[in-house]
Write a structure and sequence with these properties.
The complex is a heterodimer of chains A (429) and B (94). Chain A is α+β, with helices and mostly antiparallel strands and 429 residues long. Chain A has one domain (52-384). Helix content of chain A is 44%, strand content 10%. In chain B, 80% of the residues lie in helices and 0% in strands. The chains are: A alpha+beta (429), B mainly alpha (94).
């Protein structure tokens, strides 16, 4: 009996202590939260991802200057057609092999294999290819429409279908003519095409496709080229499949790779990520390690909003991509501006404009589709808890701390490019 | 084990280590009459140790070996120092 009472007393005591401890922790926590600056509090209240929803794109657009971009002004089109002969030469170097790790026949073989499906059904994705299997514009549409009860319901089903069919991230935004090319161009046929779409789309479904982290650590190499190619191949497969899904339920639809319209503004508008210093869309989940595909449809869908999770702020001090770029094609200006390098940039949008011609020349130098700006970016991390934690901490920190974070990223061995050991590790792991 | 991913196994063992660590701190308080400073240092050291292990093992799973080593150095070393200090602050065994 005594021993029972004794043990009961102990339990009561420890419960009291537990409650006291809990109360003390709550008071201490509240005091700490109250002492945090209001800016930090605002950041902390943005939910577990730290994403802030924006009402419009974060970039300033000068409407008196901005005009739609002509597709033939892309460095690729200029290189393929021969108006940028050094670029053409650079593209010719992509298939060359040597005994160097990353450039061997084996490495180039996997690059070619990654691109294989894209070359079969999408013709390289970078050009205007309305007559390819994946990106055909005139498609048969079922006569009977499946009616959704609301745009929200339609968006839910469409996103589920996109993820099921292979997309890693999906967002939806209204069709915005500003991002559609002013004219289309097929460089293989050296032919300008009018920017005619078979119908006026209502919504654009923007999909991001992850490229393999381990393969991308080998950049620039044939292996990282394979990851890029695989991204394009998956984009073509999912694009074609989504087109089939939507036309099956009676809505006119067509898919696009890099053709038809600019991908980065659409990715931002659909809430997939932010534009970074390297000119690439940086997503919350995969950083810049994605390819972007678009689906244009007449189906009315509930749209997502642009987001910010601190990428632009971080890019202002980081500059790891600019340091890593073998072509010196990335701006080292602290802040984004309206400055452009050549006709490959579209004036009128505040951003860090990359020099696409220098970028393409670096492809020739590295005998690959480079991607060092993807590999070196501190946002290029696998989707692991500790990287999400660092992202979150990073967002709460002021600018000068970002320089420390940049150095820590290097110290911890992330973001190495031209790392031959990574090629070996890729094949042996 | 095939149904569990590396990260799930890691967090299971981290749970075991944390539980053992908390039991250790309770032992220090109840049996060794550890003072508040010693308890605070022990708890901080345990937290850092678990964090160092979690970081390093996660880095190994993602094949980032340098990050794993640096994780042990940056978080593991202070953890050991804190635990050592906590041990030093313990009252003499009677």
């Amino acid at each position: 009996m005594d021993s029972d009472e004794g043990s009961k007393k102990d339990v009561t005591l420890s419960r009291r202590k537990f409650v006291k401890l809990g109360a003390a922790s709550a008071v201490a926590g509240s005091a700490m939260m109250a002492s945090l600056p209001s800016q930090v509090m605002a950041e902390a209240s943005k939910g577990i991802t730290g994403k802030q929803t924006l009402s419009s794109l974060p970039n300033k657009i000068d409407n008196t200057v901005y005009q739609r971009f002509h597709q033939k002004n892309t460095a690729f089109c200029q290189a393929i057609t021969g108006t940028f002969p050094e670029g053409r030469q650079a593209l010719g170097m992509l298939g060359s092999t040597s005994n160097e790790l990353g450039q061997r026949t084996l490495d180039k073989a996997i690059s070619d294999a990654g691109w294989y499906i894209d070359s079969l059904i999408a013709d390289g994705a970078s050009t205007s290819s309305p007559d390819t299997v994946a990106y055909a514009r005139d498609n048969e549409t079922a006569p009977e429409r499946y009616d959704f009860s609301s745009p929200e319901e339609a968006a839910h089903y469409v996103k589920k279908a996109a993820r099921f069919l292979g997309a890693d991230l999906v967002g939806i935004t209204p069709y915005d003519e500003r991002w559609t090319y002013a004219s289309f161009y097929n460089p293989q046929k050296q032919k300008s095409l009018p920017p005619d779409l078979p119908f006026t789309p209502k919504s654009v479904i923007v999909m991001a496709f992850e490229m393999d982290y381990e393969a991308m650590t080998t950049a620039p190499s044939g292996v990282s080229g394979g990851a890029v190619g695989l991204g394009y191949s998956q984009m073509a497969i999912t694009g074609a499949s989504m087109r089939k899904f939507l036309t099956n339920i009676g809505y006119k639809t067509f898919a696009a790779g890099n053709d038809v319209a600019l991908s980065v503004p659409y990715g931002m508008a659909a809430g997939l990520g932010e534009a970074a210093r390297n000119g690439i869309l940086v997503t919350y989940e995969y950083g810049p390690r994605v390819r972007i595909g678009k689906i244009f449809t007449e189906l009315d869908l509930a749209c997502d909003s642009p987001v910010s999770f601190g990428v632009q702020h971080f890019c202002e001090t980081c500059m790891l991509c600019a340091d890593a770029c073998p072509g010196h094609a990335i701006s080292t200006e602290k802040l984004p501006s309206f400055a452009v390098n050549n006709e490959c940039n579209n004036p009128g949008v505040s951003k860090w404009a990359i020099d696409a011609k220098k970028c393409l020349l670096a492809w020739g130098k590295t005998k690959s589709d480079c991607a060092t700006c993807v590999t070196s970016c501190p946002y290029n991390k696998p989707d692991f808890w500790h990287h999400r934690l660092v992202d979150k901490v990073n967002r709460l920190m002021p600018g000068p701390v970002h320089s420390v974070m940049r150095e820590m990223d290097k110290l911890f061995g992330y973001g190495n490019s031209f790392d031959k050991k990574a090629v070996d590790l890729f094949w042996k792991s | 084990m095939g149904v569990f991913s590396g990260i799930e196994i890691l967090f299971f063992f981290l749970g075991v280590i944390t539980t053992l660590g908390v039991l250790g701190i309770i032992y220090l308080k109840q049996k060794r009459q550890a003072g508040p400073l010693s308890l605070f240092l022990s708890a901080s050291g345990l937290f850092l140790l678990v964090f160092a292990l979690a970081w390093s093992m996660s880095s190994i799973i993602e094949h980032e070996h340098q990050a794993a080593n640096m994780g042990l150095l940056f978080f593991g070393l202070p953890a050991i120092l804190l635990l050592g200090m906590a041990w030093k602050k313990l009252p003499e065994k009677r």
